[in-house]
Amino acid sequence: MVRFFYLVIISLLFFCTSKAQTLSEKIDNYISIELKKFNIPSVSVAVVNVDNLLFNKTYGKDVIIDRQYYIGSVSKSLTALGVLKLIEKDKLDFDSKLVDIIPNLNIAPYNDITIRHLLNQTSGIKKADGFITLPELKDIANKGYTINNVTVPGTSYQYSNLNYTLLGLVIEKVSGTSYQAYMQDKIFFDLNMPKSTAEIPNNVDAHYQYLGVPIETQQLEYSRTTIPAGFIISTTKDLANYVMMNLNNGRIYNRQVLGIPLLKQMHKVWNDGDFGYAMGWKQGKFNNQRMLQHLGTTATSNSGIFIFPDDKIGLVVLTNSNSMWFTEELMEGLLHIITNNEPKSTSNFEYYFRFAVVVIIAFLIAFFTFKTVRIVKSKQVYNTKKETKKVIIHIVLIILLFIGFPIITKIPFTAFLSFQPDIGFLILAISIVPIVLSLLKIYNTFNQQQ
Questions:
Q1: Which range is the signal sequence, renumbered to this chain (predicted)?
Q2: pLDDT band at 13 (very low <50, low <70, confident <90, very high)
Q3: Are the C-beta atoms of 316 and 307 separated by less than 8 Å?
Q4: In what side-by-side order are the strands of the sheet with 313-319?
Q5: Fold type of domain 54-338
């Protein structure tokens, strides 16, 4: 009987090990093939179930064990958890009004924004306004600050970083400490996330921007108040603990980090639907399975966290470059693997697109140089009225670019230029080169007529 019992245990252990190895092999094979299509310096992947880290590995040319990354808007989910813990301690309420918590914050025209509205991204604040840098809490208290919203709070969803920037200030006001200290003590410590930080660091591992190829650079300078919405730093191992807590009814390592009722609120879509924004999580479906996820992007990173509550499995993917499409395709392939489906192959589109951008920029520089030399050396008299019209037309086009771009994309062009400098520079160059050439023609003609 004892021998039979040991045989069963050994068989189960062999089965579990075999399954883990199969998962590892699938991920290894997939990433080793796909990364050749787009040169991302570093990709870290973690897979978890309710109480185990099933897989954690870093790939690429820039491999560092337990590498730190900027996690972008994945930060919002952790900020939401920080707010919910204050609610759990009865220090805050979902229906608490923002203006009651921060009195010198002026909101117009609808001043009844609540904590729930901020968490659900239903405050009516525009997406484009999410790129505004707010003053420190003490400066708002001393000088006041005005924020505009465009729809009645609670009636519609509009994603805006500003919602979670404001939640960071709420945490400071209610907890009586800095957002950074609160997150360290109440979130990262409780979740055993030792390499996570909400401080502005000086020594984060290398990160890159794409200018045709990945160029090592520095993260954009950012204000302390923007960290709650998009600049927390973490690792796949740390975030795996956070995902595990979400899968295990708010519990990890025999510690109840968040009560079950509040965790359910956190996962509940704002309008009670099957698809949409919850509180720091977006709910949808993948391969007909319920999925909660959040993506994050900074000027030098892409990230994603995914949980399947019904199947009790989760995925974390972090990269240290600003890929536009490839990273999300890679994440989709990994999601297929952890849901026991064949992964879809990524495309070469972004590689060729980035290469084309560089080629066109090089051509524009060469064209501009050639035309400039030719105009300066030329004794030709140009039609100044015609060239003046060209200047006016292109200036109008640039103005329309700065006005129309945020209307179409919901992102200010200056922000896009920071996040995707090669593409942004190309758009600017196409707009500005004709103006400069026309001005040179007018100047040259004016000199010859003297």
A1: 1-20
A2: very low
A3: no
A4: 53-60, 42-48, 313-319, 301-308, 289-298, 282-286, 276-277
A5: Beta-lactamase (3.40.710)
Extents of the domains making up the chain: 54-338, 349-449
Q: Mean pLDDT over residues 313-333, rounded?
A: 94
Query: Do the bridges between strand 145-148 and strand 105-108 make them parallel or antiparallel, or are there none, so unpaired?
Result: parallel
Q: Cα separation of 82 and 187, whole Å?
A: 7
User: pLDDT digit string (tens) for 243-254?
Assistant: 999 999 999 988
Q: pLDDT tens for residues 342-388?
A: 998 999 999 999 999 999 999 999 999 999 998 888 888 888 889 89
The DSSP secondary-structure symbol of 248 reads T
Do 163 and 118 touch, CB atoms closer than 8 A?
yes
Which residues, 6+ apart, have CB-to-CB distance to 306 below 8 Å?
286, 291, 292, 293, 314, 315, 316, 331, 335
3-state secondary structure of 88: helix
The interaxial angle of helices 421-449 and 349-377, nearest 10 deg, is 10
Considering the entire predicted model, what is its pTM?
0.89
Interatomic CA distance for residues 175 and 132, integer angstroms: 24
pLDDT at position 14, please? 42
How many residues are there in the chain? 450
